[in-house]
């Protein structure tokens, strides 16, 4: 498989499936493709796996369960997403959190998430490269034939049979000069951080006390008004340690210098907030800021143009389709800057189908995508981008990719996906 060209110091590889991005969707895609026997390479630009789930410390997995008030959770997908969630639950010593309006999600520990991703990759014999940055993509008509990356400061060229883009940013399409779809409405970014040594283990008390401190501080001018979108991540308070989320008050589009400015602002804001709480809130008197997520949480990036575009009506009407490869159960979750979370619910105890066409490029035969850059309208994506659904679309994309490698039609792969994940 490997050809080492000593003259150019450029290694070349010919994997069956090349996956760009080792977040929730990427590791699920790697598992899905590898279990068919495909030879899989996964490239991740960070030095650890998990994407937003670990680099932004998201903290809860949504989209795993149906929305209802039953005492026991009902999984939206069995097979890979469920097995992953149950292992994560054990490793995190956690359990499903019953939130309002029948919503349920799984709080997790981010180190457990990283460990589980490592296990998935190793158990499936996936060739993983960390610190691997996609640099160049070349198309030949309707096929991608060459992908280059810089890995630990070394250039590697791949000639894959299929590429799966799970970068969350439609990076492959952008590097190949293909059209992508930008969001019209900005979704507010957030900075997540952890504090330890909090003097309560009651989340409701913490929540109310935090609100009181913020309101009082804004009133008397000791707390900055634009730090008011601060909340406790539900289900995170355990052993005097809690995860907090600060909504960031201004809009940042895909401009690299603006992104950096946002990150610097977020870190400064968190330090100031922690200091304020230590002085002004008795629950935080002995608390310390123990961690600031390395990545500021940017919710959406450019989306891919697929054969099918999942629409808001598909989500709200719980539409079912024959080529379903994943199921969505999370409401449409919108974050306007400076405003509270807005959720649009569809019927409880029901789901909408995500068609295979939303994971297939409209114009390139060997390009698939999964996770938060699938082909969906911005409202539909505000539901599908949750981690549970990313695991499901990732796993499906892995199987669809294997069909392309074997030069088979998608029908058999779709049946396999449906059998392994939709059984009750
Ligand atoms: C602040 C915030 C809070 C959220 N809260 C929740 C929540 O509570 N529950 C929930 O379920 N979801 C939540 N989400 C959404 C969810 O975290 C993400 O949508 C989901 O994790 C996306 O998974 P993914 O695999 O599609 O993409 P990502 O997790 O973004 O993974 C993409 C991966 O690709 C890598 N990559 C990118 N470009 C390149 C490149 N050029 N070369 C190599 N690698 C590359 C990245 O480093 C990353 O690891 C939240 C998101 C944010 C931002």
Bound molecules: flavin-adenine dinucleotide
Kindly report the CATH topology of the largest domain: FAD/NAD(P)-binding domain
Question: What is the strand content?
Answer: 15-25%
Shape: globular
Number of strands: 23
CATH class of the largest domain: Alpha Beta
What is the spatial order of strands in the main beta sheet? 1-2-11-10-9
* Alpha-carbon distance between the two ends: 40 Å
Describe the main β-sheet briefly. 5 strands, mixed
- Poorly predicted runs are 1-9
Report the total helices: 11
Cα gyration radius (Å) = 21 Å
The tally of domains stands at 2
Structural class by helix and strand composition: alpha+beta
* Architecture (CATH level 2) name of the largest domain: 3-Layer(bba) Sandwich
Average pLDDT for all residues: 94
State the helical fraction. 25-40%
Let me know the CATH homologous superfamily of the largest domain: FAD/NAD(P)-binding domain
């Amino acid at each position: 498989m490997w050809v080492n060209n000593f003259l150019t110091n450029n290694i070349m590889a010919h994997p069956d499936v090349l996956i760009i991005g080792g977040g929730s969707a990427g590791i699920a895609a790697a598992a899905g493709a590898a279990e068919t026997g495909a030879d899989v390479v996964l490239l991740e630009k960070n030095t650890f796996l998990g994407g937003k789930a670990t680099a932004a410390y998201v903290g809860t997995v949504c989209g795993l369960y149906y929305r209802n008030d039953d005492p026991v959770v009902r999984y939206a997908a069995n097979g890979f997403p469920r097995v992953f969630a149950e292992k994560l639950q054990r490793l995190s010593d956690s359990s499903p959190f019953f939130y309002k309006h029948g919503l349920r999600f799984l709080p997790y520990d981010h180190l457990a998430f990283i460990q589980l991703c490592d296990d998935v990759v190793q158990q499936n014999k996936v060739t993983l490269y960390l610190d691997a940055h996609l640099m160049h993509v070349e198309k030949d008509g309707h096929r991608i034939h060459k992908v280059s990356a810089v890995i630990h400061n070394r250039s590697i060229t791949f000639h894959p049979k299929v590429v799966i883009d799970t970068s969350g940013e439609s990076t492959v399409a952008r590097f190949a000069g293909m059209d992508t779809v930008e969001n019209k409405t900005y979704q507010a970014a957030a900075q997540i951080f952890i504090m330890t040594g909090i003097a309560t283990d009651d989340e409701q008390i913490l929540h109310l006390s935090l609100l009181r401190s913020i309101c009082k501080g804004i009133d008397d001018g000791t707390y900055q008004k634009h730090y008011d979108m601060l909340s406790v991540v539900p289900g995170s308070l355990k052993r005097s340690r809690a995860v907090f989320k600060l909504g960031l008050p201004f809009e940042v589009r895909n401009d690299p210098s603006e992104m950096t400015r946002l990150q610097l602002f977020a870190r400064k804001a968190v330090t100031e907030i922690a200091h304020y709480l230590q002085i002004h809130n008795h629950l935080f008197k002995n608390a310390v800021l123990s961690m600031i997520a390395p990545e500021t949480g940017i919710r959406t990036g450019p989306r891919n143009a697929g054969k099918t575009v999942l629409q808001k009506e598909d989500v709200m009407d719980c539409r079912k389709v024959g080529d379903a490869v994943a199921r969505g159960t999370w409401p449409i979750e919108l974050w306007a800057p400076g405003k509270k979370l807005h959720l649009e619910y569809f019927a409880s105890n029901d789901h909408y189908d995500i068609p295979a066409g939303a994971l297939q490029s409209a114009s390139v035969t060997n390009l698939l995508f999964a996770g938060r850059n699938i082909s969906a309208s911005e409202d539909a994506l505000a539901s599908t981008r949750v981690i549970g659904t990313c695991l499901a679309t990732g796993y499906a994309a892995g199987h669809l990719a294997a069909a392309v490698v074997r030069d088979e039609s998608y029908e058999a792969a779709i049946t396999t996906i449906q059998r392994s994940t939709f059984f009750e």
